[in-house]
Amino acid sequence: MVTQLRVYRTPDERDQVEPLQDPSVRVRLGDLLPLVALGQRLNFIWLKDFLDDEVCITQDLQDVLETFRGVRPSA
């Protein structure tokens, strides 16, 4: 029986890889959040592939999130 070897990149190599696509799609937060929440609740592995992706938000949403972070109850 022949053993097949797999080659994996080290974490450093993964960090240096340029993104395959430039962000080009605008999505309403109200459409995005339920899908992301469902993916997280059901622990879908594909969601972990995107955890390092950045998103652009408005300054007023940033302000609200920062305030919320400071006042939300710790669970």
Structural summary, described in words:
The model has no long low-confidence stretch (mean pLDDT about 80). The chain has about 80 residues and is mainly alpha-helical. It has helices at about 10-15, 30-40, 45-50, 60-70. The chain is built from four helices and no strands.
Summary?
This protein is mostly helical and 75 residues long. It has helices spanning 11-16, 29-41, 45-48, 59-71.
Overall morphology: elongated
| Number of helices, where a helix is a run of at least 4 consecutive DSSP H or I residues | 4
Q: N-to-C terminal Cα separation, in Å?
A: 52 Å
User: Kindly state the mean pLDDT as a whole number?
Assistant: 82
Main pleated sheet: none
Helicity, in percent?
A: 40-55%
N to C succession of SSEs: HHHH
Radius of gyration (CA) equals: 18 Å
* Beta-strand fraction estimate: under 5%
Helix vs. strand class: mainly alpha
Number of strands: 0
> In terms of per-residue confidence, which ranges show pLDDT below 50 for 5 or more consecutive residues?
none
Detail the topology: elements first, then pairings.
Layout: H1 11-16, H2 29-41, H3 45-48, H4 59-71
Brief descriptors of the model:
0% strand; single chain; mainly alpha
